[in-house]
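Annotators were shown the component list below and the corresponding predicted structure, then asked to write short factual statements about the assembly.
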Amino acid sequence: DIVMTQSPDSLAVSLGERATINCKSSQSVLSNNKNYLAWYQQKPGQPPKLLIYWASTRESGVPDRFSGSGSGTDFTLTISSLQAEDVAVYYCQQYYDSWWTFGQGTKVEIQ
Amino acid sequence: EVQLVESGGGLVQPGGSLRLSCAASGFTFNNHWMSWVRQAPGKGLEWVANIKEDGSQQYYVDSVKGRFTISRDNAKNSLHLQMNSLRAEDTAVYYCTRSHITAAGCKDYWGQGTLVTVSS
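Structure shown to annotators:
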């Protein structure tokens, strides 16, 4: 199975500042020039919400302060200017093979 | 509006069985892979099983293989998860999810979840 490891486990960022979350896969998730990597946001008491797929494609309706980057085994989710409503746990997920796996999650809080 | 509504959760003893269901509406059900994802209390997300649009392929996480069966009824727009030989470690909120139409491994819609508690 492909193991997804996120860092850090938690971070506290001031309002308006940049938040950066890293995700590393145990093997490459790149195939046919596409990275099979998604990012989700989960707020307390709610189901997860898809933010990014193909590593950098923003889902419809997602604010442009959210961006994804990276390729192969190393990926980053960036929140360019943290807003109060962005407090949540963020998960990466690979869908390279048929046994999809998630990272352990990164909790983002306001400093 | 896309809606996924889970049902069937509850308290069950170790070794028991439960059948979860998910009623889907607001989209063409048989155009999408569907999946179950679970979340143990206070823990992260774990994909459990998925099923192809026509039901011809199913995949499972190793920990439930041989105990859980995912199925779908495209005529009734419903997804199911038959869970047998339940263990304490199966305790979780179980989410029904729809796969993205162009990125089948991504889940673009999630239900609110149904809680399964395995305890004596």
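Statements collected:
1. Chain A has a mean pLDDT of 96.
2. The first strand of chain A starts at residue 4 and ends at 7.
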